[in-house]
Amino acid sequence: METKQNVAVFGAYGHTGRFVVAELCERGYVPLLLGRDPARLRAQAEPGLRAREASAEDPASLDRALDGAAAVINCAGPFAATAGPVIEAALRAGIPYVDVAAELEANLDTFTDFAERAAGTLVVPAMAFYGGLGDLLVTTAMGGWTAADEVHIAYGLSSWHPTAGTLASGVVSDRRRGGRRVRFTGGRLEYHDGARPTLEWSFPAPLGPQNVFGEFTMADAVTVPSHLDVPEVRTYMTVKAAADLSAPGARPPAAVDGRGRSAQTFVVDVLVRSGDEERRIAATGQDIYAITAPLAVEAVERILTGRTKATGVASAGAAFDAFDFLRSLSAHLSLDVPTRGFG
Ligand SMILES: NC(=O)c1ccc[n+]([C@@H]2O[C@H](COP(=O)([O-])OP(=O)(O)OC[C@H]3O[C@@H](n4cnc5c(N)ncnc54)[C@H](OP(=O)(O)O)[C@@H]3O)[C@@H](O)[C@H]2O)c1
Dihedral angle at the C-alpha atoms of 217, 328, 252, 9, nearest 10 degrees? Predict the structure, then answer.
């Protein structure tokens, strides 16, 4: 395969970073492995892969690490500590930045802090399962609509064995929220102390009706309203998966196939409503961490080949042709698209 550009991966030896590095290699890119632990970098570096030590607290180390990179993918979370410094370094290097942050406060900071300064390049936060996939599905379901009354995103996860990074990011988000809960309603994020609702959501067959928690608010509550005029963005999570996540001593994901994917399956079921009209789309796949890699790397590939719709800070749905993007991931995602079509 023809050798393409170097793409830096900050947090390369983390669980998600490893999937991203493998996806870059598969597509003929040369990953630059970046992280703060030289021993773990050395252990990951195979012949032909270059590893560079870099710390979010040391801007000069980031500048050295990004030298010669065409783009950077940030997989090091909690992102409250890493997104700002790595974006700053990407701007100094004049290269695009993509991250996989699921912390909606960190995503908001990215939009707020870099909207103007990133105008000459592209910064895509939450280019991952949470925040990115939902936004691509919503944007596709909207078709030509730029506004809707309600957006519903239901996550049908068979289980959720979280990584250390997921748990640490949850702790940081919880602290930033002062232990309060958050939902997107009335056109804004609202922090409150109310109880989390439970209800039944009818997923497409074969999953069918499942008990879900309402207001399981994820990064989509930032990415979707960043470019679509929707006052209500409601997200749901299967009760079983939410219970796995919060169980004491939750186990990390265990690989069951040659790609390193776990047995976890997911359905992301999206419904948008405007007046009396409803539009739906769903995506099915395996392992929320593994699917994040083709999402982030496809984003980088489109940026590097000029297939973008935006500059500055933009979510997946704003930056790319959403339906085309989703269809390009057919090796990883099955789409359930109603026959009436979109666009
Ligand atoms: N939006 C989504 O759908 C989605 C999907 C996948 C992952 N994520 C997010 O991605 C992050 C990583 O997840 P993971 O599954 O890869 O977790 P992980 O296996 O625990 O890896 C975490 C990685 O982040 C690095 N890191 C953490 N804090 C750092 C800091 N201050 N400076 C430099 N490196 C730092 C760690 O390096 P050290 O070992 O040196 O600390 C490690 O490489 C989490 O925030 C997770 O929520 C989001």
Answer: -100
